[in-house]
Amino acid sequence: MKKTILATAVLGLASTSAYATDCSNIAMYSDGAAYATGDTVKNNDNAYQCTVGGWCGIGGPYAPGSGWAWQHAWADLGKCADVVINDMDNDGVADEIDNCPNTPNPDQADSDGDGIGDACDTVDIIDTDGDGIEDAVDNCPNTPNPDQMDSDGDGIGDACDTVDIIDTDGDGVADDVDNCPNTPNPDQADMDGDGIGDVCDTVDNTDTDGDGIADSVDNCPNTPNPDQTDSDSNGVGDACESTAGECPSYDYNTTYASGDIVANADGYFKCDVAGWCSAGNSAYEPGVGWAWESAWSASTLEACTSTGGGVDVPDVPFCAPDWVSSKIYGEDAIVGYKGIAWRAIKETYGIAPDNDTYGPQYEIVGYPDEAECPVGIPNNIDYGMPMPVDGNMYAGVVNPTGAIDMARIADIPSSQTGKIGGINPATDNGGDHGGLDGDNGARVSKVKPGDVANQHNVYDVTSGTEVVTYIGDWAIYGRQYDFTKLAAHNLDRIVYGFAGICYPDAKNEQDGGFPTTAPAAVMRTCNQSNLPDGAMAVADFEAAFLRALPGGPKGKVIGTESMYELEPKDVGGVFGVLYQLREQNPDLKLDLSVGGWTLSEGFPWMAHDDTRRKVFVDSIVHFLERFDFDGVDIDWEYPGSDGAVAGMARPDDAETYAKLIQDLRAGMDWLSAKTGKKYRLSSAIPAGQGRLEKIDWSVVHPYMDRLYAMTYDLTGAWERELSHHTPLYENPNAVGSSAGTSVDFTINYLKGLGIPANKLMVGIANYHRSRAMNVGDVTHYDNGIIGESTYGDMNWTGANLVLGIAGVGSWEAGVIEGYDLYANYIDNMLYPRNGYSLYTDKAANADYLVNESIGSFITIETPRTAALKTQYAKDNGLAGVFFWMAEQDNGYNLNAVNHVLGNPLVTDNADVKPQQQIPVCGENVTKAECEQLIAPLK
Q1: Over the stretch 674-719, which tens digit does the pLDDT of each residue have?
Q2: Domain's final residue, options 338, 372, 406
Q3: pTM score, whole prediction
Q4: Residue 543 carries which DSSP code?
Q5: Of 241, 637, 719, 812, which is the active-site residue?
Q6: DSSP-assigned letter for residue 322
Q7: Which of 514, 554, 622, 754 has the largest count of CB atoms under 10 Å?
């Protein structure tokens, strides 16, 4: 739980600034040139940076900014003359120097001096005397003394010190702590450390070598060595150590290798050119004459003993993978070399740790110890028996629901006109798509999240009811979603999607003959990382770790590394942004989701085999430690039932699903004992009884922290029935895939199986499903919608049916993303646009849109229905709510959830308040009926 800040910050607003920059040094793109990763070019008035060196030039379809394929090889840096100063909270202070980058605080006040501004400091700040210094560090907490003057150094400020302060020499230092009480010396300099200040010391403080250390105490008085290093503790500093016997003397007849160090001519020298350093080449005798510099370079005794075996290695174990000459190592990277653990003191590439030719690159810190590393994949560790876990222990800690306005009926068309995107929502009902998504023939709007204004407020998340969201890394491509704008401050946890399973025989065609590249992408990561069958691997290495994203950290990943050799501080991509968001929001948790609709085929194959299942668990344990994530989510769609691939289910799925969950729990418990950190194990689970009853939940739920009930996608273009895809209650008239299913049904069914309420999470959809229909296909609107699309050929089945009746969409046929809903179909006050009407099903307590004139039906999630699901979670003691998915919401749904949870509003950014959007119902109900429908919120 986050604490409330007691101090009040003065908030201000400022505009984000943009400054012109000179691009004359950026070369124009040449189609015939070869570009390396990181190269920057100009093309079509934009600047681009190469992300995949082998694809960035020499012909091909990847010319930056031309066509569509270029995004696989280049990153768009924006207009060449524009450099944007990131200012996320709009307070006039750039993010990189802002001590509260997500909370406006133009004054940058930091009362306790901890580097975190008062406006976002989660530590209680109490300043009794109001002098701007927190009581915890104020040397006079009850008496104002902003200068914290303490002349006698007794820890009590002058303003409240009852001891007489005598300062004979008037230099501001009290006599009882002044090392020269009768001679002014405010700097208290004491070169020889004898307790007597230099200005009144009668001892000779001569400093012959000028290194700031008096000769009387300098262990090398004639050779500068301000650090006084004395490796062998013999009282003689390394800089003037003359015991050449510890380093081999130069021998004219000896053959020396590059890197060897010798003593000669009162100095130490390292061989740089092996062929010239020995074998009778007297002209190159180190330190004699002038030619020696062509073969040798000056070195030190310390360097000689380090490489010659005489170095004193600290007795400290490190995870130190063997140094690789082709790898870029960032500052503080730890490597193993010649049995020693070295830490990089700067970013370095291709220089061995003991090679000082180009100046020191590394320092010795200890010795390599594999026990300090994440587990191997595979390994022989017995993780032991799993232990049961509790759910959300704070589920009962609830705030009062925020105030809700009186009911309002959206029974008039919006005053907003026009459209955004590539289709006309007033005339196009979707229907007859040429492909499933915008890249292969779907006729969709391609509205980007950035095309619609971001409306996220800022809340102080204090409710015990959790708010979690899934994200999809693919949003960085066509949608160009800026993950740095994700409202992490309003969330408890982010679940990253997706990783998959190393399954070489996975099919690349799914669900009615639709192609998918996801399994092949997983196998590329598996092969690149040399992973065994059954291991976990991210589906998109580039999106996850490599691609430079606007506002994100610049990674040091080349793109050819093993996924399990990367270091969190070196990654770019979406992972890099997530680490950045967690640094800005220390309470934020990060989980990894494995599977999903397109990547679940490998689960039955992996889980039923003991060896492959152990490999999978090993990879998860390794991942959690290496990448410092907080949990893993198993999104197996679905145990015992086919998902995206016909025939994937096995008869023993229920048993092996339980084994997998138990083995993962044991592995995560073992890791917790090693790291001291608790890890969350969750699973996305179906909502319908037919799939739920395949599992014996009594042997599964005790080992799971959370179960994410996917109470959405209950109907769609795979069937002609028109019903709700994410209703709170059942539609009593439904006969298709949504029949008998709802949030209320699923939660009560699971609770009836003995699953604790505080482990259950309710799904909220940030997207909407549409279908083409004919006039009159909806025959009943009120208490349980009744309808069936008669659009097109009634004999359509499979892919023909889906592509035929799928309605309007944003990026996928029949799927409208949340921000697009407000761009084209309703306005911010929920009034309908472009010929649509808003309706409310009183039985299901669900909302939908219909445009009879063009034949279009859309089942939607509004702030009202999102708020009701959240209230349901509070009232029933559930663990919380979760979103599929964050990048689809422009802020209205998340604002509504936080408002219902009673999380205090910190910054009001939205153009409409959630309490105004939540009480809106469709034109087919009265205000009194609407009041009854929203009664749980009041």
Answers
A1: 999 999 999 999 999 999 999 999 999 999 999 999 999 999 999 9
A2: 372
A3: 0.70
A4: I
A5: 637
A6: B
A7: 622
